[in-house]
Design goal:
Largest sheet of chain B: 6 strands, mixed
Distance between the termini of chain B: 41 Å
Helix content of chain A: under 10%
Number of strands of chain B: 12
Radius of gyration of chain A: 13 Å
Largest sheet of chain A: 7 strands, mixed
Strand content of chain B: over 45%
Number of helices of chain A: 0
Oligomer: heterodimer
């Protein structure tokens, strides 16, 4: 049973480019969370999605950031017009849903904006 | 709103000694509490959780944690630390109304040989 998959593991973008981060949840999991971890800091919640539905995006910056979790395929976190401050590790976690008490984390995508 | 505090940025212990990593929380309703560990350049790994029942919960790698409702704490403990336990430890809380997990800022544990 494969765990949570994230790709790419490392992503380098120049300022102004777009970054697309992908997350494939564990088999049987229909809920996905995205977190951002800045260097030497803890995890900050960004968005919580269910298939085809955004449940909570209270942690998402108002501009340039968006997320989706389509019926088929991975969840995508998209950052448009990246800036240096977007450089961070982005982690995805998945769970089975409402009665799930655990999240399972992917290995993360390390985004570097040059 | 939920919140988690980990009052120590760094904890240093000698190998073989007991370790404690502190966590306090604030949540409306009943708390669901978690500990995760993060090794360098890796994702978070689940260690243990408290949902209900016995206040002392046992988890992976010999770790345990004690839920104390009156002190709103959930400290992580291990009787005998190993050098390989050196990592970043995160406490997290979820209330029984919502779905969001709130993580503490993390505590870096260094176990010295």
């Amino acid at each position: 049973n494969a765990g949570v998959m994230q790709n790419p593991r490392h992503l380098v973008r120049r300022r102004g480019q777009e970054a697309r981060l992908r997350c494939s949840p564990m088999k049987g999991h229909s809920h996905v969370y995205w977190y951002r971890q800045l260097p030497e800091e803890g995890l900050k919640f960004m968005v919580y999605l269910q298939k085809e539905n955004i449940i909570d995006e209270s942690g998402m910056p108002k501009e340039r950031f968006s997320a989706e979790f389509p019926k088929e395929g991975p969840s995508i976190l998209r950052i448009q017009q990246v800036v240096r401050g977007d450089s961070a590790a982005y982690f995805c976690a998945s769970s089975t849903g409402l009665d799930s008490y655990e999240q399972y984390f992917g290995p993360g995508t390390r985004l570097t904006v040059t | 709103a939920q919140s988690v505090a980990q009052p120590e940025d760094q904890v240093n212990v000698a190998e073989g000694n007991p370790l404690t990593v502190k966590c306090t929380y604030s949540v409306s309703g009943n708390p669901y509490l978690f500990w995760y560990v993060q090794y360098p350049n890796r994702g978070l790994q689940f260690l243990l959780k408290y949902i209900t029942g016995d206040n002392l919960v046992k988890g992976s790698y010999g770790f345990e944690a004690e839920f104390n409702k009156s002190q709103t704490s959930f400290h992580l403990k291990k009787p005998s630390a190993l050098v390989s336990d050196s990592a970043l430890y995160f406490c997290a809380v979820r209330d029984n109304y919502g779905q969001n997990f709130v993580f503490g800022p993390g505590t870096r544990l260094s176990v010295l040989p």
